[in-house]
Design goal:
Blueprint lengths: L4 H13 L6 H21 L21
């Protein structure tokens, strides 16, 4: 497993900046979830064909839906 100390420090800073002070158990759960999300994102990078994704067109009309 690669060293994630710097990434973990940035994660802690982000939590603090958001005003989130989780308990040790919750913090570990958040960190584990974050690592899993990063792992999944890295695995899918390059595997998705943007041309196969449906295109969405956004228009600003000034009208409420």
């Amino acid at each position: 497993m690669k060293d994630t100390a710097q990434q973990e420090a940035l994660f802690d800073q982000t939590l603090a900046a958001l005003g989130i002070e989780p308990t040790a158990h919750d913090r570990q759960r958040l960190w584990t979830s974050y690592l899993k999300q990063q792992e999944l994102a890295a695995a899918w990078t390059g595997r998705l064909d943007p041309a196969a994704e449906p295109a969405l067109e956004f228009r600003a009309t000034g009208e409420s839906p």
